[in-house]
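Quick illustration, no need to memorize.
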Amino acid sequence: MGVPCIVQVVGPTSSGKTTLIVRVVRRLSDTGVRVGVVKHTHHDIDTPNKDSWKFLEEAGARYSVVVKGDGEKVAVFTGGLTFSDVLGELSPRVDVIVVEGFKHLSLGGLRVDLSTTGLSDAEASIIEFVEKCLAGGRRL
């Protein structure tokens, strides 16, 4: 498998980034495309004093993995990874990586800015880009 297609979605708060990404991921996944999503946030993602936080912050583990049931949901917490490390972890597992935010980074691939593009046009642009990016230019 080659390098995954990179799609970056940026825009102001409440501009529809998550809505757009959900629509695109659903559409791509329905056609068999393996999609990974990376979201940038300023909010805490691991709760202080919970087990997964303690393993990382207090004990110094590199990874803390929380598994619900027999693996129906898995959350991986880690510290000290660069954005490049994250992309490297996803790359062999997916065909497309959709990135929400990280507007200060130039990632290559397609960058959609919802401050200047409507949701419908953005979705069409992303699907067209992914079709061209994937081997054989298959229609989605």
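Residues 65 and 76 are 4 Å apart (CA to CA).
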